[in-house]
Automatic annotation (TrEMBL):
InterPro entries: SNI1. It comes from Oryza brachyantha. One of its GO terms (cellular component) is nucleus. This is Uncharacterized protein. It comes from the Eukaryota.
């Protein structure tokens, strides 16, 4: 596998973009001078022109730095829902058509290509400034560095807690921005992750937008993760409230509320929730790569240092028990959901093996089978319950069993997750039911909540089905 740097666009394409660039600069410089309606029309026409030239033409050409930048400024500066959504969709489509990092076929085989000159919504290092502007950072103030990205999350948390503001245009704009920024990080990180797996070249991951964002001194990582958790949970609670009140809203006439904004806001709340999950999963995968690179001695102090995101999440869930249930209900990526549950148990089920930079003690990691064995007798179960509480134990076990069922029904055969489960579905189901029987022996008056009851019923049913299938 080779890593290549993409060549610049042809001179003809750059020349053809000159007229569009001039229009872009004119549009962006007329704010406060033109009539609002004229400005809206000019911006809408500009977006359509960029779409036609760069996406819909017979021979589309990639947009210049200024064209990209103009579209992003329209997204941020517009008070029109139409322009916010149109500019967002255009940026996403341009990113898919002209990716920053991608795989391509070459004479020597598959090659990993990085287009370092391509415009990005992130300004993460001093050399990002385009040569077109001669390094004048005044033109980059609207781009996102680590501090501004963190502030966006903080603002969204505050607005989400303000019932009067969480359906407004500004909140929708922030949710759209978050979705676009996370999708940009993902489009850059995923091919780099795959390239690292092929080459074990840590530099490929070290130069990712995600890594540069997280290691910046401008980012207080623990506070950032806590704010992301707060946003995730606030969006979850709003979804629950939206579901409860949807019937009431449908009974109201359109004149009683701005139905279009309400519907779009609800949709982007769901997408914002998904974006936070994507961000968490990317950081977890980056931590996995960093850990492996550390083990092989590929990293240096210059690469920065921070706590793994799982440690921060677990600390937050441990000290705020009320977060645990909604977080597990919201976080639906099976591999990492199970990892969070197992690491939560590991905090209370004996001291983990000491890990050093150059050692790999993965064989000592808990599996779900190991955890369930701790509840194989009433005596051992009692010791864990004293440390964790019966309610937390039930919740974690039921969510872990949900993961087992989902992995069993997944045709992709996630081998890593299956290893972390450590046993067959029949064995896990049997141990799961036995664990709850022992919990009841400890406390005959134990309250089992509906989610856990459903998991128990499913486990008992699976035992019967699977045993009959073995006959």
């Amino acid at each position: 596998m080779a890593t290549l740097r993409a060549p610049p666009p042809p001179a003809g394409a750059a020349a053809a973009d000159g007229g569009i660039e001039e229009n872009a600069m004119a549009i962006l410089d007329t704010a406060g001078i033109k009539d609002a309606r004229d400005l809206h029309d000019d911006r809408a026409a500009f977006l359509e022109t960029v779409r036609s030239a760069c996406l819909a033409a017979d021979n589309p050409s990639p947009p210049s730095w200024r064209m990209y930048n103009a579209v992003f400024q329209i997204l941020q500066n517009s008070s029109s829902l139409e322009l916010i959504i149109a500019s967002f969709h255009l940026l996403v489509e341009l990113g898919e058509k002209y990716p920053r990092a991608y795989w391509t076929d070459s004479v020597s085989g598959k090659a990993f290509v990085v287009v370092k000159e391509l415009w990005s919504p992130f300004h993460l290092c001093s050399d990002v400034a385009s040569g077109e502007f001669g390094g004048n950072t005044r033109h980059l103030d609207h781009l996102f560095d680590s501090s501004r990205f963190s502030s966006l999350i903080e603002d969204m948390v505050e607005t989400a807690n303000d019932t009067d503001a969480n359906n407004g245009i500004e909140h929708i704009k922030n949710m759209v921005l978050l979705q676009y920024l996370v999708s940009t990080l993902e489009a850059d990180f995923i091919p780099r992750r795959d390239a690292y797996k092929e080459s074990l070249d840590w530099v490929i991951s070290r130069e990712s937008l995600l890594q540069m964002l997280l290691v910046s001194r401008k980012l207080a990582f623990k506070s950032f993760v806590k704010n992301c958790i707060s946003l995730l949970l606030s969006q979850y609670y709003q979804e629950v409230e939206d579901g409860v009140s949807s019937k009431e809203c449908s009974a109201k006439s359109a004149s009683d509320l701005d139905s279009s904004i309400a519907v779009i806001s609800s949709e982007f709340k769901r997408k914002a929730l998904a974006s936070v999950q994507k961000l968490f999963i990317m950081v977890m995968n980056l931590d996995l790569i960093r850990k492996e690179a550390d083990t092989m001695g590929l990293t240096t102090r210059a690469d920065g240092c921070r706590n793994p995101i799982l440690d921060v999440i677990l600390d937050e869930l441990t000290y705020n028990i009320s977060y645990l249930s909604p977080f597990l209900l919201t976080f639906m990526e099976w591999k990492w959901k199970l990892e969070i549950i197992l690491q939560y148990f590991s905090k209370y089920c004996g001291k983990p093996a000491v890990r050093t930079r150059r050692s790999d003690n993965s064989q000592h990691d808990l599996t779900l089978e190991n955890v369930l064995s701790l509840f194989s007798t009433a005596a051992t179960a009692k010791g864990i319950v004293k440390k964790m509480s019966s309610e937390v134990v039930q919740l974690l076990l039921a969510n872990a069993y949900q993961v087992c069922l989902s992995v069993e029904g997944d045709c992709s055969k996630d081998s890593d997750t299956r290893k972390r489960i450590g046993a067959t579905l029949l064995q896990i189901s049997d141990s799961f039911v036995s664990a709850f029987q022992n919990l009841r022996k400890i406390n005959p008056n134990i309250e089992i909540l509906p989610f856990e009851k459903e998991a128990l019923f499913t486990a008992a049913t699976m035992i019967r089905i699977l045993k009959n299938g073995q006959r």
